[in-house]
Structure prediction request, 61 residues.
Amino acid sequence: MEWLKDISDKLVIWFLRSTSGFGKELTAEGRREQRQWREQRLRNLQGLAQRSKQHLSAKDQ
Prediction:
C-alpha cells in the first residue's frame, strides 16, 4: 500500500511541476544551484534514514 502512496505523490509532483512552469525563469547558474540543494536534501534524508535504522536495531538488542 505504501508503494501506491509513493507513486501517487510522484505523479502529483510531476503534474504540478510540468504545469506550473517551475524553474523556467532560472538562469543556468540558478538551475545548477537548485540541483545542488536538491542533491544535498536527498543526502540528508538518506543519512537520517540510515541513522534511524541503526538506532532502531541498537534499541532491539
Summary: Residues 42 and 48 are 10 Å apart (CA to CA). The helical segments are 2-20, 28-60. The chain is about 85% helix and 0% strand.
